[in-house]
Amino acid sequence: MAPFLAYEDKGTKASTPLPLVLIHGHPFDHTMWVPQMAAFSPARRVITPDLRGYGASPVVPGVTPLSTFAEDIAALLDSLGVDRFILGGLSMGGQIVMECYRQFPERIHGLILADTFPAPETPAGKKSRGEMADRLLREGMRGYADEVLHKMVAPYADADVAAHVHRMMTGTPPEGAAAALRGRAERPDYRDLLTRVGVPSLVVVGEDDAYTPVSDARAMHEALPGSTLRIIARAAHMPNLERPDEFNEALAAFLKQADSSS
């Protein structure tokens, strides 16, 4: 059966080292991981899907909860014959990683949580996400993309990086983005789950991230047993694109640790 999700799959298909699966955030697509695909696919398999409603994957209007995104990831990896893997995600992608660990922890042998947070939505946040979903359906993505670009990446970010981020945002179907916003508003509380994680974990955050500040990353690091915290200087919400060398250095060190423990 053909996989539901569009995806990119690069690198060796050998059983070791374990494949690296990277989940993009909102409102992006799998191309946000281009620097990591380039850096790590020569030595290991790297799989980067487009979530439903994003990129080249099918658009499903309505409400898409994090549990559905996680089920899609499991089904994709089943179709690719990938049973064990290291899983990472940024922002909403990080919350999907937590949901994946809740659903099928036995398959995951390392967690990368980038610029994300585990707490449930507040009443004000639910209202705000619902209003934004309505706005995107009414107006499209461009106005929103223009407004948030320099929170997604820092105002001092490389112009080509900012342009890439803006293209991803404006290329996202509003129906898919709205469905994810509504689903994310109803997400569970993952804070207790983090205290029970039994695999190596990396928490990484941009020093100037306004959406998920360093304080959120420190709290996750303290909750996760034996985790590593890396703060990327001169980066906002997307350090993997803004400072790819520093991000990849942190990721390489973590993968070495995860490979030895698996």
UniProtKB/TrEMBL annotation:
GO molecular function, one term: hydrolase activity
GO CC entries: membrane
Cross-referenced Gene3D superfamilies: alpha/beta hydrolase
InterPro entries the UniProt entry points to: AB_hydrolase_1, AB_hydrolase_fold, AB_hydrolase_sf
Domain of life: Bacteria
The AB hydrolase-1 domain, residue ranges: 20-250
Record flagged with keyword Hydrolase: yes
Keywords: Hydrolase
The protein's name: Alpha/beta fold hydrolase
